[in-house]
Design brief:
Length: 408
């Protein structure tokens, strides 16, 4: 078996509609990340403190966590195109209202951000549910890897775009720019949605939320992803604390960049690897854990931590992409968007818990122990993933509406 091959990439790019679907999804996700910095500064300028900004951002996250699975479930029931168009336009209006809110009414900001968070379109969920409808075989593995890798680019470009708008103009203009981008890009992405798979069991009732989540494979996958996000958010806070400890805040941006760069490289390489005939997800989780443990022993200088973060980053995008793939394969097409919606809610909860716990660890024990805490989270996810069935290459296509031999 060759060490590297590009058949997955070639098949992916040759498939009709893949390039426009991926490009439109990336642009549709861009305003979601570009919004965060302007909203934070808008709240800080109006309320006078970052504590208020954090409260406003928390309301936004709560709205996303609550409404995300509901919009995803609606997309499965009534089609993703209509849901994306309605939420995309409504989200743009909510952002415009937030930008136009007079400073004297700043106490209404949490209510508006809660509403805006509840209207965030299910772009990521619909994309990940769409891949099995568009590609199969090795190209499907590559699609999820490319998706996870491209997400790293968005995390680099989106906040930078929002910060640039704040620096050049004002937070209000930054929020308005995000509103305009969302109206255009989400509309384009909505029109690129593939048709759902044909099903012979139209009369079969869809799974309830309890049936979807209370499953021996899907629930561990969703919980494992939430634990990974706990670890990732904790590390981001640890990077900020490390930079502050060294008296140079620019170090934080550099370390975040090299960490993301490692993930980009890892995802690109993973998409070109032929892969094992039988691939276990827990092996990738073990590599994620090892990468975080490596950072525990590299906090004695910015250079050593930068090298360790780069090596740790190599494991992230391949592991996240593999988790997306397994969750999609182990979920019926009729509820695939919804399950990724629940994954998004787990990520939001994990982000909040990870940041809070890591802040307490920094204050009580020191910066290096943030990476130890992240390794503990990753190790727990490893245990959860031990019983997940392996990915077989080549894997036969799922039966229409099927579940690899299981339904609940």
């Amino acid at each position: 078996m060759p060490f590297m091959e590009l058949s997955g990439y070639r098949e992916l790019w040759r498939t009709r509609g893949v390039i426009t679907l991926l490009a439109s999804s990336l642009l549709a996700r861009l305003p979601m990340l570009a919004t965060l910095v302007p909203v934070a500064f808008l709240a800080k300028d109006a309320g006078g403190s970052f504590r208020w900004a954090g409260f406003v951002a928390g309301a936004y996250s709560v709205g996303m966590a609550i409404a995300g699975p509901l919009w995803s479930r609606t997309a499965d029931r009534r089609g993703s195109r209509g849901v994306l168009l309605v939420t995309g336009m409504a989200w743009s209006v909510a952002l415009a209202l937030l930008a136009a809110l007079p400073s004297g009414l700043y106490r209404l900001m949490p209510l508006l951000t809660l509403l805006a968070g509840a209207l965030v379109p299910p772009v990521m969920q619909t994309l990940r549910a769409s891949w099995p409808r568009v590609v199969e075989g090795p190209a499907l593995r590559t699609a999820y890897s490319v998706d996870a890798t491209a997400q790293e680019l968005l995390f680099m470009v989106g906040p930078m775009l929002g910060a640039t708008a704040v620096s050049v103009a004002s937070p209000r203009l930054g929020v308005l720019l995000a509103a305009l981008m969302s109206a255009i890009f989400i509309w384009w992405y909505a029109l690129r949605q593939p048709a759902p798979l044909a099903r012979d069991d139209q009369s079969a009732p869809p799974l309830t939320a309890r049936q979807l989540l209370w499953h021996r494979y899907r629930l561990p996958l969703i919980l494992a992803f939430g634990l990974w996000v706990m670890a990732f958010n904790g590390i981001s806070l640890g990077i900020v604390a490390f930079a502050d400890e060294h008296g140079e805040r620019l170090i934080a941006g550099v370390l975040e960049a090299v960490w993301a760069f490692g993930s980009l490289v890892g995802g690109a390489v993973a998409g070109a690897l032929p892969g094992r005939r039988t691939s276990y997800l827990w092996r990738r989780a073990a590599l994620v854990t090892a990468g975080m443990l490596l950072c525990v022993f590299a906090t004695w200088s910015p250079l050593s931590l930068g090298v360790a973060l780069t090596l740790s980053g190599l494991t992230l995008a391949p592991s996240i992409g593999a988790l997306y793939e397994r969750l999609g394969a182990l979920t019926p097409d009729t509820v695939r968007t919804e399950v990724f919606g629940w994954m998004g809610s787990a990520a939001m909860g994990g982000a909040a818990i990870g940041a809070a716990l890591s802040g307490a660890v920094v204050e009580s024990f020191g910066v290096r122990y943030v990476w130890l805490l992240a390794a503990v989270f990753a190790a727990i996810s490893l245990v959860l993933l031990l019983r997940i069935p392996p990915q077989h290459q080549p894997e036969p296509a799922l039966p229409a509406g099927g579940l690899l031999g299981e339904t609940a």
